[in-house]
Amino acid sequence: MSSIESYLEASRARFEEELCELLRIPSVSAQPAHRGGIQQAADWVAQRFVRQGFATEVIATAGHPLVYAESPPVEGVPTVLVYGHYDVQPAEPLDLWISGPFEPTRRNGNLFARGATDDKGQMLTHVFGAEAWIECKGRLPLNLKFLIEGEEEIGSPNLEPFIRGNRQRLACDCVVISDGAQFGPDQPAITYGLRGIAYFDVRLTGPARDLHSGSFGGSVMNPANALARILTALIDEHGKIRIPGFYDDVVPLSDQERAQLAALPFDQQQYMQQIGVTALSGETGFTTLERRWVRPTYDISGLSSGYQGEGAKTVLPSSAAAKFSFRLVPDQDPEKISRALRSMLAGLCPAGIQLELEEHHSAPGVRIPLDSPFVAAAAAAVEYAFGCPPLYTREGGSIPVVSTFHDALGVDILLLGWGQDDDNTHSPNEKFSLADFHRGIKASCRLWEELSRVRR
Amino acid sequence: MSSIESYLEASRARFEEELCELLRIPSVSAQPAHRGGIQQAADWVAQRFVRQGFATEVIATAGHPLVYAESPPVEGVPTVLVYGHYDVQPAEPLDLWISGPFEPTRRNGNLFARGATDDKGQMLTHVFGAEAWIECKGRLPLNLKFLIEGEEEIGSPNLEPFIRGNRQRLACDCVVISDGAQFGPDQPAITYGLRGIAYFDVRLTGPARDLHSGSFGGSVMNPANALARILTALIDEHGKIRIPGFYDDVVPLSDQERAQLAALPFDQQQYMQQIGVTALSGETGFTTLERRWVRPTYDISGLSSGYQGEGAKTVLPSSAAAKFSFRLVPDQDPEKISRALRSMLAGLCPAGIQLELEEHHSAPGVRIPLDSPFVAAAAAAVEYAFGCPPLYTREGGSIPVVSTFHDALGVDILLLGWGQDDDNTHSPNEKFSLADFHRGIKASCRLWEELSRVRR
């Protein structure tokens, strides 16, 4: 690996500059105004693969395009599929960014920009890891397939049909995804479980227009009052979700896993400081890590009704809306949850109010066996690059596509997050540690070698 | 009155044009961007009084200016104080207006503009009523004082100190206010009761920034979840407000008043059509009119949290805010309610959440004795202009200043609303019926004559 190590050392500035180039492209998948940025980012990624000799295709979908690339084929070695995404979350609220979300800026060893860690920076570690092999050794030690999508942040609506319709083409021995966080600084981790998600938009409509709250208040159901009541009815004061059957498929935590989670070097005080709260809370009877990783949750992500401007406006609003999601754990079925929610909401909606429920996206949770040889290969690569063995963790977030890969390709998924919990993913001032960026590239180079030796 | 009637007939077009002039001035008191409009409207009103020979003053306050004007003094006749306001509610949401909020437009006998009925149009009926006397008879039959403020829609923060500090100057036999609605089309009313109000802004702050709802959800209290729960805890499912002591000072409705309210020609079906709902609801055990006029209410006027844009954003928001108010009935003390609310919210606020409560404005409810000679004079004036005797009604809205006049000047208040319930007060497409505008002017002319004969 020494020639590769020298190559990586010599390429640091260029790797960073290439990442900045991609970060300058505002590829926000949720906002139609950024359609141009999406196309530009897809083209940039495709060109990047073409330059290192991969057979590359930009594949149109009903939404944003997929970029698919294959390394020059090598016989008799494993095939690995790398998944990533070139789209990013909306950057709003813009006034909270210290430097522009699409003007990558270095501060204190970090690179700040929307998408720095989620997922442009992490995704590129594997592109550069492949480049290093090709430049130093003339070829990769295994076959690589890259599938880089542009709709991850809107729930990958077109990826699942693509994967299910292209099993042959995507066939591989394992999937590698870097789209998450380490356990902490200098605490790399292999994530063996993800939560699922079911995300909804609910809108209540009452009177045909905003009414004067004095003249009309008391005579008619206020949609904002009704929304608060309905949203509150979904969860009890102990953090238990009250949708009938919600916990039916939740497998109880084993004593062994509880002990393993409890042994992780998790510093609750530091965590509170990191996110800026004076107390932690959540479902009664579970530790903080359990509540983050292995228990389902219910969080409102947006509330909107009536007058939100300065001062007082005495209206009884015509409508009220909320965005909310459930994080699901493995074995919970999002469709079953969605049906039960819809039926519960119908029962909760008061007379005089019209309720519309829109389901944005959903995905089941995932769990990977810890005794897999691919996990062992990943652990060796991580230890080589980071200088310490990885921790085995779960993750509270959802990568909707992971369960699809798991199910459609029948292989293990290696979740190797190079980010940090305080990277401000989905928030203003998203960042990626440049040290982690380069260690990620180094781990990726070693990963190709380790995985090339695994025989299923 | 015949010369005055002819004068009114000949002046119709000019009266309307003057109203349009004032409506074109965007005097939104809640929005600092409209400070220029406020000043312009105050000047317009002052100039209007100067033109008809009133001693006029624009009085600076800590907020928006007051316009005060006195007719040339006449000895040995009563003095009447007319109160109105030149400020208007915010016009948002702008996209729901058929014609611009500050571009007065006639459609179907109505004049559409923000402030058409609330209160520019109604306030001017008394200005024109005074003008007609001066032009036709050379002088008014009584002394008139006009106090026109620019902060009614933000709770009149500077008016109460002014009234309390100027009792001598404002001394009068009764106060006349036209800032409300008739019972229905061709059903003029004298309003003998108003609800009070206590309006609040609550903001909950949790984590220092928006968090990824997957990575962090479950570990920390979500301010939007907490807000929904707190807002819901303030009222039970039967519409009873749960603040301790809230109903202590609510005087139970007498059988006589219940019977009188029940006898009013109120068409529930038509009311539902008017506001565009399929069902009415509210506090259990009371009729619709009782719930609108003589029972307290709790209405959320605004909700704001997290991501409200297109698509899904999986955030656990850093903060959540609501605007809400209680409509109070006579004998409830807003300060007592405010203290009880503050104490209840402190108990409801979960660990890890910081709660800020801002009180926007408040006013107690008011009730006027129906056997007052001033009420009889007003009834005669209304019958003369509208061709039928007035109904005696109460009103669900609040005119914060009414209780101050009542208390500080010790006189009866005549609430003579010329508007209609479907005037879209505080909503897009506010309007004022031009027929009501002119009947209001006619009633005002006669009112000066009727009131001039009352001896206290």
In short:
The structure is a homodimer of 456-residue chains. Chain A has 13 helices and 18 strands. Chain A is an alpha+beta fold.
What does this structure look like?
The structure is a homodimer of 456-residue chains. With 456 residues, chain A is of the alpha+beta class. The first copy, chain A, folds into 2 domains: 2-194 and 366-452, Aminopeptidase, CATH 3.40.630.10; 196-250 and 296-363, 2-Layer Sandwich (Alpha-Beta Plaits). Chain A is globular and about 80 Å long. The first copy, chain A, has a 6-stranded mixed beta sheet, with helices on both faces. Chain A has a 4-stranded antiparallel beta sheet with strand order 11-13-9-14. Chain A has a 3-stranded antiparallel beta sheet with strand order 4-5-18. Helices cover 36% and strands 21% of the residues of chain A. At the A-B interface, strand 9, strand 10, helix 6, helix 9 and strand 11 of A face strand 9, strand 10, helix 6, helix 7 and helix 10 of B.
Descriptive key words:
456 residues; Alpha-Beta Plaits; Aminopeptidase; 2 domains; 6-stranded mixed sheet; 18 strands; alpha+beta; 4-stranded antiparallel sheet; homodimer
CATH secondary-structure class of the largest domain in chain A:
Alpha Beta
Specify the number of helices of chain A. Answer: 13
- The computed structural class of chain A is alpha+beta
Shape of chain A: globular
Q: Look at the structure and give the mean pLDDT of chain A.
A: 95
> Main β-sheet of chain A: number of strands, strand sense, barrel status?
6 strands, mixed
- Chain pair with largest interface: A-B, 100 and 101 residues
> For the largest beta sheet of chain A, what order do the strands appear in spatially?
1-2-6-3-7-17
Task: Domain count of chain A, please report it.
Answer: 2
CATH homologous superfamily (4th level) name of the largest domain in chain A: Zn peptidases
Distance from first to last alpha carbon of chain A: 24 Å
| Percentage of residues in strands of chain A | 15-25%
